[in-house]
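Budget justification aside, the reviewers requested a transparent look at the raw inputs and outputs of the sequence design task funded under Objective 1. We therefore reproduce one unedited record. The lines immediately below are the structure tokens for a 199-residue chain.
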């Protein structure tokens, strides 16, 4: 039985990366397919934020996230030393290119890992082209699609849809049919229970 999960997320949200890791741990037991719903935490031209030099955020991550990361085997930089935190609009436009090539999950995983484990600037077109190639995509075609703005309107409509129509207020928010799980899960077992309760 395939579980079709939609997840509103942002590549600069550490809780979103934790949820992805939890899903990966469930894959030997459950056939889960993810469709990512773009949700830009900071939409241009709003000012970018400096998460690296934010002591309050560091303290919260240490208390809430580090134990979760240990449970799921993630070695994340909390927060990554990328100042300011990147806009993710281009990265999400790349998601549509990857989806067209049936490599959406591989691409998204590569972007998450690049930012949270390797501290790479995922707002940079040059970095995104390199990461897309590492995920198995054609680098030249990927770069051309992003430069041309091919997916710009669709990506911005998707963000509007998530925020206004779906009323997503926290990421990650997972959707399974009519059911939603806001903020992720505190354990792999909790996520498994929620999935099985709603399939």
């Amino acid at each position: 039985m395939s579980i079709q999960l939609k997840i509103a997320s942002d590549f600069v949200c550490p809780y979103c990366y934790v949820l992805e890791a939890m899903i990966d741990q469930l894959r030997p037991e459950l056939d889960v397919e993810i469709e990512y719903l773009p949700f830009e935490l900071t939409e241009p031209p709003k000012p970018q934020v400096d998460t690296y030099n934010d002591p309050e955020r560091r303290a919260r991550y240490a208390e809430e996230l580090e134990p979760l990361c240990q449970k799921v085997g993630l070695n994340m930089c909390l927060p990554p030393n990328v100042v300011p935190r990147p806009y993710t609009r281009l990265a999400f436009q790349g998601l549509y290119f990857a989806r067209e090539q049936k490599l959406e999950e591989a691409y998204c995983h590569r972007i998450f890992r690049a930012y949270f484990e390797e501290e790479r600037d995922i707002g940079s077109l040059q970095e995104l082209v390199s990461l897309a190639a590492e995920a198995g995509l054609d680098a030249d075609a990927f770069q051309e699609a992003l430069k041309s703005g091919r997916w710009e309107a669709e990506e911005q409509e998707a963000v509007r849809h998530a925020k206004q129509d779906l009323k997503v207020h926290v990421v990650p928010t997972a959707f399974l049919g009519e059911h939603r799980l806001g903020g992720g899960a505190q354990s792999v077992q909790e996520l498994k229970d929620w999935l099985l309760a709603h399939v």
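Residues 69 and 151 are 33 Å apart (CA to CA). DSSP finds eight helices and four strands in the chain. Computational costs for records of this kind are itemized in the attached budget.
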